[in-house]
Request: fold
Amino acid sequence: MIYITLPQKLSGGGVHQTMAQSRCPFLNRVSANFLKRAGRSLTLYGQHCPMMSRLLCNNASATIRTIDAVGKSPMQLRISGRSYNTTAAEPKKGGECPFRWHAALKNSLKQQVMPTSWLKPQVSYGHESFDYEGYFDKKIKEKLDSSTYRRFRIVDRNANQFPECSYHGNTNSGTDQAVSQQATVWCSNDYLGMSSHAEVKEATIQAIGSHGVGAGGTRNISGTSSYHCMLENELGSLHDKDGALVFSSCYIANHATLSTLGQLMPGCVFFSDQKNHASIIHGVRNGNCKKEIFNHNDPQHLEQLLQKYDPDVPKVVIFESVHSMSGDISPISDLCDVAHHYNALTFIDEVHAVGLYGQHGGGVCERDGLLDKVDIVSGTLGKAFGVQGGYVASSPKLLDVIRSYAPGFIFTTAMSPILMAAALKSVQVSGLVVIYFVC
Reply:
């Protein structure tokens, strides 16, 4: 890597003094401290300024030093040999400096500061360097070849005519987004249309008027509003638990809760259903503990696996109530009985059931009278409840541990109060209707 080392008269206050003597209108208006901090960046822009360019060109004593590139990021800005403007006219006395910041950011300079090939190192390491762009291109082609490349449909839902929408094509088709066609959305997670329910919208509008649109901080600092507390109490009651914790999504809720439990409990073992959701799989993986996978909805196989471990070993049995891909409903009672017989906690994901099953929308566990059999329940606010976010409901001590140790809960901005107000009203409205499904 090559840098230009300037002589003493062009460093620190010397630059200011030299330029001031030459009456440069730009440098006359900045402080010496600014120039001291600017350092080598002045040489980057100086080649576009007639005054600076002349001084740099006349500086025959400038030396070039080479620094070993090993260990340096390929994204660092490299200043190599440059040609300087030596024929520019002398700036008018008292006039404006011909060097302007916006003029410096021409396409030629942008290519030097933010080159289109910025991922490719411009130095030699003695062997072929890693081709980032080529690698990314290869991975995308793999997705295309396997027909798993994702294209986002551009859909503007009609809040006044559920489930109608305006369809604008997709992000990769080159479709003119100004042109749309009317369509019906049969693949929405907003199962009941609660996102456009009149009371939910009204609660949202009131929250915006009172509190604005943002949370203003993390939950641990200034992001916990009264709406957060009311919603978490409501969700705890919905699942017959002492309380709940709200996350930005149920993916984060599952991942943060399971990975934290796995990392905290010594010698913990996870027992996970074969067809559990990706959020559970990743939470188990990042728990950095032993795991056992039992056959889908198979209490007998689960028992065989549990028998291998002593009762004093921390264990968590994880399954879903309604499985997203197959639609299967788990034998919740049998799975819980086996788990508790071997002193294991039970974790159930009710994402595809809350708001739909049970007298108050508490899921399959409420419908089947099994709320007391599950230790930890996770759910979503973004499907049947029609808003956004996820949560876990459990005992006060377990929730306090997750609140205190889970990075996915601690180090992120809290959910907006307007979303909490909307979710609270949606859960309350859903609880007024008795919904029965024949499965």
Q: What stands out?
A: DSSP finds 17 helices and twelve strands in the chain. The radius of gyration is 31 Å. Residues 129 and 246 are 45 Å apart (CA to CA).
